[in-house]
Design a protein that fits this description.
175 residues; Rossmann fold; alpha/beta
Length: 175
């Protein structure tokens, strides 16, 4: 299946010069959405996973569907201040600044192996922040799965250098 056909490109969003890769059109297509989840499930069904962790917000959609398909629990990695109770926090670098991800304490432990899910890999900052957060819980990350990679921004390469393998389903070169 040609996933690129199902992913909209919105020029100059959120600012001039950016070619925003929008997966909402893919999610709205029942065949395309099923294909993505089925392909990820095939990749991870024999990996000994205990959970799927998704990065806010589109990683929630993909990750929850994948967790359901695999019969696993889902753990949300949220922006600061969105989760009740005690949390682990991790600051991470964005293209223009920093942000913070959190996970509830007790959501994962050293007995857990997870796949980290998000919609897109750009510079790698969010994924590396999520990796550090998962490691605070003591859990092991098998891989980071994304639908889209923007290889020219170097995120997947940077993640690999830091010990986080990235699996992407489609790449948009030059963007």
């Amino acid at each position: 299946m040609d996933l690129k056909q199902l992913i909209r490109t919105i020029p100059d969003f959120p600012k001039a010069g950016i070619q925003f890769r929008d997966i909402t059109s893919l999610l709205a297509d029942p065949i395309g959405f099923s294909y993505v989840i089925d392909q990820l499930a095939l990749r991870y069904k024999t990996q000994g996973l205990t959970h799927v962790a998704g990065i806010e917000s589109r990683g929630f959609i993909l990750g929850a569907a994948l967790a359901y398909k695999l019969g696993l629990g889902f753990v949300p990695l949220r922006k600061k201040g969105k989760l009740p109770g005690e949390t682990f926090s991790q600051e991470y670098k964005l293209e223009y600044g920093t942000d913070v991800l959190e996970v509830q304490k007790g959501a994962l432990s050293s007995k857990d192996s997870i796949v980290l899910v998000d919609d897109l890999m750009a510079t790698g900052g969010t994924a590396l922040g999520a990796m550090a957060l998962i490691h605070q819980c003591g859990a092991h990350i098998i891989e980071c799965a994304v639908v889209i990679d923007l290889p020219d921004l170097g995120g997947a390469k940077l993640c690999a250098e830091k010990g986080l393998r990235v699996h992407s389903m489609v790449a948009f070169e030059g963007d």
